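A.,

Following up on our hallway conversation. Structure tokens first:
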């Protein structure tokens, strides 16, 4: 049955909200937000749509769901959450789940300068966000050089008896041992805060005045310190070859469609200083234009991250889209956040730099993709496979003397590691330390659904191990009727040196040793090493969990109340271990029979 748009539109409200367009099989095609649900949804059913892509999407609509919200800002946040959780086919999707780093100045008598990543609170003063951890650490090093603020943890600061190495190299004024007064340190903290806020000229003016006053008092050592600070400040200002004297906070957002790629590049200007760029490559971009990408990025990014004073965009979204974005940003930030095109020479320089970095990111991505395709082709040729390789799955086993055995399965697809398809298997019901049985169990559990006709089968299976592990894995495939799937083992070479690996086949073929410079071997090593990393991190987590679990928690019939009673009576696990069954039976809630069971379990 075709979708009756006219009847559906008659039921819609004029309130703001979010709409979800679904296909006949229930798949979500598109998620969008609207200041006015009725007007926005109606715009999809006009005769002349903005693009063939949108027209194709509308032709597949079988149902539309809506959620009204109180404000447009709430709609923006809900839209962002739904896009990330549902990943609709026709939404331009940006993966930007990582939090951005900040510089913090803590509270207290001698505030600490530090790196911070997370949700800001009121326990410190926060400056940022910065586009990368490198930008934060570089700025911290500059501030240490100029103002000599401490960066040590509180536990270290309160227990120092003599200055540390940072004092010796003139990166800290040693407030921990009283080598600077509280007032002088507070003045340095104020200067650092002003610098981070972009007030470099005011900082220079104050330092110059302090230097002249110290010289007039004949305090030449103090004057030399101020002189060095001024020189450092001048060096920083020279380093920031594109900067603004206004000390403004601006995001420069550019989108570039070139060489088959669509890249959105975000450059951050904080305190008038250019802090760096971060490129984003959206998913589901299809035939979307650059202006569509900037609008999608604004809606998704600033629903999760704080907006600066204003945003420079290139190219600018369509007028109605731009107005809606500005209204939503204003509501989220509780102030106006204008979206502007570059006007001044400085702004145009920022945009030009962002565009150049977007071009470089596209070039690097395409070169990396071409290299990966070359490695895949070399691997196909080396293994004499008839079909191209697009998906590789690799298995590894990790344990410590048989304890907490964990198997990993990592996936390489689309010219990169596909972490969303990674799997770990906690190995059970085998003899501890039996790697062959562990491998067989992991392969069997992974491909049981494939044998049932569900999921995507790999084009190549890698086994981290020699003949025994390969034989066990192949036996598991034989049980499932999947022996047609290509498989090789990767046996470590002499002294486990990279480049000396031997490729083991499950059939009668002779082992293969590729040259250490062979691109196929490089790809195998990359995937194998990732499988090893994923397995060992899972194993360590399991082992840590097991060792942190109290022996009392594993006792049959002993719940939280009885554990608490046992600990209260005997003072902890050592006391329980030395207690007799008769003494255990004296604990309230512990019967004679249960006491004997506890004693037997512990001895």
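Then the amino acids I'd put at each of the 603 positions:
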């Amino acid at each position: 049955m075709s979708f009756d748009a006219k009847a559906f539109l008659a039921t819609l409200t004029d309130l703001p909200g979010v709409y979800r367009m679904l296909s006949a099989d229930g798949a979500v095609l598109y998620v969008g937000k609207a200041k006015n649900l009725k007007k926005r949804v109606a715009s999809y059913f006009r005769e002349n749509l903005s693009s063939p892509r949108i027209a194709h999407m509308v032709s597949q609509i079988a149902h539309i769901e809506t959620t009204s919200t109180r404000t447009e800002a709430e709609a923006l946040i809900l839209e962002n959450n739904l896009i990330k959780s549902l990943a609709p086919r026709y939404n331009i999707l940006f993966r930007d789940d990582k939090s951005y780093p900040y510089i913090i100045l803590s509270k207290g008598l001698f505030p600490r300068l530090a790196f911070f990543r997370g949700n800001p609170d009121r326990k410190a003063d926060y400056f940022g966000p910065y586009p990368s951890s490198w930008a934060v650490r570089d700025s911290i090093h500059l501030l240490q050089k100029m103002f000599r603020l401490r960066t040590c943890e509180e536990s270290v600061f309160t227990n120092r008896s003599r200055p540390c190495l940072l004092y010796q190299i003139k990166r800290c004024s040693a407030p921990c041992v009283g080598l600077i007064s509280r007032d002088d340190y507070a003045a340095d903290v104020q200067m650092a805060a002003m610098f981070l806020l972009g007030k470099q000229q005011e900082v220079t003016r104050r330092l110059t005045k302090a230097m002249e006053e110290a010289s007039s008092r004949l305090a030449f050592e103090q004057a030399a310190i101020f002189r060095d600070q001024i020189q450092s400040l001048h060096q920083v200002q020279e380093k920031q070859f594109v900067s603004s004297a206004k000390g403004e906070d601006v995001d420069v957002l550019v989108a570039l469609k070139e060489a088959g790629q669509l890249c959105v590049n975000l450059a951050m200007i904080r305190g008038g200083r250019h802090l760096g760029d971060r490129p984003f490559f959206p998913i589901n971009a299809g035939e979307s234009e650059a202006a569509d990408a900037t609008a999608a990025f604004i809606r998704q990014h600033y629903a999760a991250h704080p907006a600066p004073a204003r945003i420079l965009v290139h190219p600018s979204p369509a007028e109605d889209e731009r107005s809606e974005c500005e209204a939503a940003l204003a509501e989220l930030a509780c102030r106006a956040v204008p979206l502007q095109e570059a006007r001044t020479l400085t702004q145009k320089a920022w945009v030009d730099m962002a565009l150049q970095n977007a071009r470089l990111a596209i070039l690097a991505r395409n070169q990396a993709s071409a290299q990966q395709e070359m490695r895949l082709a070399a691997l196909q040729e080396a293994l004499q496979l008839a079909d191209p390789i697009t998906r590789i799955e690799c298995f590894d086993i990790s344990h410590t003397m048989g304890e907490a055995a964990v198997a990993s399965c990592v996936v390489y697809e689309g010219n990169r590691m596909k972490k969303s398809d990674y799997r770990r298997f906690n190995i059970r019901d085998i003899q501890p330390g039996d790697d062959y049985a562990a491998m067989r169990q992991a392969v069997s559990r992974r491909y049981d659904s494939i044998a049932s006709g569900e999921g995507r089968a790999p084009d190549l299976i890698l086994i981290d191990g020699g003949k025994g592990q390969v034989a066990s894995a192949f036996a598991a495939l034989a049980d499932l009727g999947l022996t047609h799937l290509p498989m090789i083992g990767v046996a470590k070479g002499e002294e486990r040196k990279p480049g000396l690996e031997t490729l083991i086949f499950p059939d009668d073929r002779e082992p293969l040793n590729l040259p250490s410079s062979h691109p196929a071997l490089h790809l195998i090593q990359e995937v194998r090493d990732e499988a090893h990393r994923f397995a060992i991190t899972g194993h360590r987590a399991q082992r840590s969990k097991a060792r942190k679990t109290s022996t009392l928690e594993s006792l049959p019939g002993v719940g939280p109340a009885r554990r608490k009673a046992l600990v209260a009576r005997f003072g902890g696990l050592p006391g329980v271990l030395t207690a007799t069954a008769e003494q255990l039976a004296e604990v309230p809630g512990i019967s004679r029979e249960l006491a004997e069971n506890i004693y037997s379990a512990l001895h």
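The CA atoms of residues 81 and 300 lie 8 Å apart. Curious whether your intuition agrees with the design.

B.
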